Amino acid sequence: MTSSVLIVDDDPQLRVLLANSMGDRGFKVHTASGGTELDHLLRTVHVDLIVLDVMMPGEDGLSICRRISATGGPAVIMLSALGEEHDRIVGLELGAAHYLRKPCSPREIMATIRAALRERSVSHQGERKRALDFAGWRIDLESHELLDPDGVLVDLTDGEFAVLRAFVERPRRVLSREMLLEAARGTDTNSYDRAIDVQVSRVRRKLKSNKEEIIRTVRNEGYIFVPAVRAL
Fold first, then answer.
1. In 25-176, which ranges are continuous DSSP H helix?
2. Most-buried pick from 36, 50, 108, 156 (CB within 10 A)?
3. Domains in the chain, start-ordered, CATH in brackets?
4. Pairing relationship of beta strands 49-53 and 230-231 according to DSSP bridges
5. List of residues 6+ apart from 67 with CB closer than 8 A
């Protein structure tokens, strides 16, 4: 099934450039110059993902992202000249799946779009798969319970469970700290990369296994959940 992408940017040249690039790669593409056109399109066409500029006249991209996320709308990729850590964190905390700093190549944007669509698909599948198994461990996504290979219940904080859930729903893929940060916005987490490192370390300790490595660090990239995951 062809994925539908909506490009929202007040720069007409960039809209055309991105639309042509995405169209050439098989996507169905819509464009809007701002929030008003975006709202009209969302009422009339199906959209799987939105590429959203941050700095626009009228309603800015952060405000748009906030209300799209609040209503369970399409996945959002933020595109902005503002690329400091604080800016990225704000965008991700408002619900963006990814945050790209301008200037970036159409190739990088395309790779990010594909990644965001895969993540959304896996997430939706995970919502239907309530109990999962990995390396003999069992996690129940509804009751928030983790059982070790001997069937013993393992105590997890809300933040630790959120991080583990992000891993089991996206196994064998590198997850950046930003992606984990978005998944782990629990009451016991702070909005900084180091907090994610601490959460991952805690989860690692609770998933200790003599048989295999479960969470692997990928230098300068993030982390990868090593074992295969299957639905029960």
1. 35-44, 61-70, 85-93, 106-128, 158-168
2. 50
3. 4-124 (3.40.50.2300), 129-231 (1.10.10.10)
4. unpaired
5. none
Number of neighbouring beta carbons within 10 Å of residue 156: 19
Q: How many CA atoms lie within 13 A of 77 on its CB side?
A: 24
Cα–Cα dist 183/169, whole Å = 11
Q: What is the pLDDT of residue 47?
A: 87
Residue 146's DSSP bridge partners are 139, 154
For residue 145, give both structure tokens: 């319970």
Regions of the chain short of the pLDDT cut 70: 1, 83, 120-129, 182-194, 209-211
- What are the structure tokens assigned to 155, written together? 């105590």
User: What does the pLDDT look like over 115-146, one tens digit per residue?
Assistant: 888 776 655 554 445 789 999 999 998 888 99
Token pair, residue 12, equals: 């007409």
**Contact of 57 with 10, CB cutoff 8 Å:** yes
Return d(Cα 153, Cα 139) in angstroms, integer. Answer: 10
CA distance 162 to 179: 11
The pLDDT score that the predictor gives to residue 123 is: 55
User: Residue 4: which residues within 8 A CB-CB, separation 6 or more?
Assistant: 27, 28, 29, 30, 45, 46, 47, 48, 49
Dist CA 139 CA 22 (whole Å): 38
